[in-house]
Design a protein that fits this description.
- This protein has helices at residues 48-52, 84-87, 129-133; strands at residues 14-23, 28-36, 58-63, 70-73, 77-83, 100-108, 112-120, 139-144, 147-152, 158-161.
- It has one domain (14-161).
- It has 3 helices and 10 strands, in the order ββαβββαββαβββ.
- The N and C termini lie far apart (112 Å).
- The longest helix has 5 residues, at 48-52.
- It is mostly beta strands.
- The protein is 8% helix and 38% strand.
């Protein structure tokens, strides 16, 4: 923070969200992400997902047990894990609209595999998991238990839909019975 010519220090108030980062260089860091305060939001602040999908390429992070903020490049961020109560206001909106939940397994190459739920809020003509992952946003949220995993699509190598489908019908194969021939008696 810098002091102005008048000797006054200006600071934009932020919500400090405790998170765990997983970076492309295989570092896992616990600390605080700074989120914009939004009085009109049910959360009172922006979500991690909203913050990471903003156009800025870098974000500030205060590592646990440190007193200096580090600035990280979003492109090197594989995953952010946060308590779902601090990040998702969509839960209350699910019952009020045409949103549904799909269970998926997301593989991020050699970094991480996460099984959880994605919230699909898509128009009826684009209501597939494939359509969800083809949206232009760089990050998406996957819910697992009481945690929200905000994942960078850049590192996603595969997605499996885990919705229970009926088993395929058993195929009955008919075996041909050979005709019997009588042995000639000699």
């Amino acid at each position: 923070m810098r002091t102005s010519d008048l000797g006054v220090t200006f600071q934009i108030p932020k919500f400090e969200a405790p998170v765990e980062l997983f970076l492309a260089d295989n570092r896992r860091l616990k600390g605080k992400l700074f989120l914009s305060i939004l009085p009109s939001s049910k959360l009172g602040h922006s979500s991690v997902l909203e913050g990471l999908n903003e156009p800025q390429k870098f974000f500030p992070f205060l590592p646990e047990y440190a007193n200096q903020v580090e600035v990280f490049n979003k492109e090197l961020l594989v995953e952010v894990v946060i308590d779902i109560k601090l990040d998702q206001e969509e839960q209350s909106n699910i019952l009020e609209s045409n949103i549904w939940i799909e269970e998926v397994e997301v593989q991020c190459s050699s970094y991480v595999t996460v099984i959880g739920n994605v919230i699909l809020d898509l128009p009826p003509n684009r209501a597939r998991v494939l359509d969800f992952f083809n949206l232009p946003e760089a990050f998406f949220a996957l819910q697992k238990g009481d945690k929200s995993h905000v994942i960078n699509k850049k590192y996603v190598t595969s997605v499996k839909e885990l919705t229970v489908l009926p088993p395929p019908p058993k195929q009955i194969t008919q075996t041909k019975r050979g005709g019997r021939t009588k042995k000639k008696s000699s």
